[in-house]
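In the laboratory, one determines a bound structure by crystallizing the protein with its ligand and collecting diffraction data. In a computational setting the workflow is compressed into a single prediction: the sequence and the ligand go in, and a structural description comes out. We illustrate the idea with magnesium ion.
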Amino acid sequence: MVKKKVSKKRRKKATDVSRETLERLITPKVKVSKRAKVGKEVEAVWKKAVKEGKIAKKEPVPPPVKVQKAEQIERKPPLWHIRERLFGMPKEETYNLKKHGPLVDLGAPKDVSYKVIETYPVNAPYAYIRIIDEPATHEYRYQVLEPRLSRSEQKLFKDMRTKLIEALDVDLRVFEEQGALLYLKNSTNKILKDYRIELGSVSKEKIMYYLIREFLNYGKIDPIMRDPGIEDISCDGPGTPIFVYHKKYESIETNVIFEEEDDLDSFIIKLAQICGRHISIADPLLDGTLPDGSRVQLTLGKEITTKGSTFTVRKFRESPFTPPDLIEFHTFPVGAIAHLWLAVEHSKSIIFAGGTASGKTSTLNAIALFIPPEMKIVSIEDTRELNLPHPNWIPGVTREVAGEGAGEIDMYELLRSALRQRPEFLIVGEVRGKEASVLFQAMATGHTTFSTMHADSILSVVHRLENPPINIPRILLKSLDLVAIQLQARVGGKRVRRMKTLTEIVGVDSRTGELLTNEIFKWVPSSDTFEYSGRSYVLEDIMNEHSWDEKRMAEELKIRQDILEYMRKKGITHYEDVAKIVVMYYREPEKLMKMVRRDVRG
Ligand SMILES: Nc1ncnc2c1ncn2[C@@H]1O[C@H](COP(=O)(O)OP(=O)(O)O)[C@@H](O)[C@H]1O
Ligand SMILES: [Mg+2]
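The predicted complex, in structure-token form:
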């Protein structure tokens, strides 16, 4: 066999863009989710479990929008294309990073005194993020860097935008992604030809970027939406900079701003449209879901928020938080998670309560990973947030249609129909109103339920449940087993989430009618530690069920703590991997414990 000689000349001569710059200009492969190897044995047990679980009938999904494939559009050449062929107009040169140089200036302006912390691409070669440290305030700032348009390019962009709005006779959303892009490019080229506008390849590339950003993507916030480090984006009104929550730098101000009221209003209307919903001055509040699963909250005009329209985007997490994450973040002590694990395994009903964004839904999702895989689970939410690997999971979303009337399915109805599907586990995203009574009836008739609720203490949970509009009779409250209260706090200047208390509903005192509760775990803010009361009625219940003694129960808790520690140390934090380990424990505990002991107990 003859080895092919590799020519040394293959590598092209470097152009005016240096290698180093080039590397910075190109998007590195971003690993979206870290998956850890769980091993062949674990994989095999998981596969078997999934096969055995009877696959439930999925809910009928609405018919998809008609999608026009890219090829179909290509087949119909635009008029200018034909003209080009007939009259032999020259083909234009397209932009090339190596040849034409970068579109974005990444060098810091010379007259500023700030320190650059890091610069990274989010949509190379068009958009980059620069984190800087402002020496005056010692605050981090988030800068979006995009191609700069000259005054004439800016004017041309605005003209093109107006002309395109007139020219685009179809809603671009009916196309699949590539189709829409092609359609937009063709329409732009046609306008340029029709108006005999000649553009250099760099100018054209820059203007095209802004047109695509505007018509197909998220406009001004597009680079932020692409940044995997960002958790939420919030805009408090026109004329105020947008703030983001960055995984590494926390809450920071950006250089993105909607100066004009009108621009912000039309952006909000656009976001609503992307969610497939409608927002107007008459109906100025909206909660929606973007196609990638991110959630948005929008307000339009000055009726509700005096400063003007506002929006918040909560970015979708591809893999939800898992129990080992919650331990790693110090949100829960490992003992409390082991406790919750035993509770889920023994079908105890739980409410996760807390304030806005305290992490209720995330914790619910994490704890639900302890549900054995063969169980039938039905979930109901207003907007889709939960993500479970269980093959027998039927997710349901309430449907709100603009305006009252037919077609609307509310939580109450959805819950009643969910019960007809006889789930073993019922998950309700958030209880607010009359649906709570159905939830408690479900508990009383032997279903296990998990849900979240807006309340900051056990007292306020009980108060909200027993009073209008929910009105649960005290006797039904007994069916609830556990309430976990979560909060957002500052520890050492950092924003963190902590479990405030984990409390059991023990029963009702038959003499006084008082509701009896027992606090098992409590967070101590001053030391940022957790206290264990030493007594749990839920565990006593489980001990009675199996006739276990104290020693056996202690060992059961220890085993689960070891498995949790094992996952945390091994970096097994992806939700699918965690579920696999849990199944391995249910099915082949000895094998798993061997692996765990090797790693944890040494
Ligand atoms: N334990 C946690 N530690 C750190 N951040 C968290 C934690 N739980 C949730 N978050 C983050 O907090 C935000 C709100 O979480 P979510 O579960 O939706 O809260 P809630 O349901 O209480 O409104 C999300 O951005 C999420 O990524
Ligand atoms: Mg929530």
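The longest strand covers residues 494-508. Keep in mind that any predicted model is a hypothesis to be tested, not a measurement.
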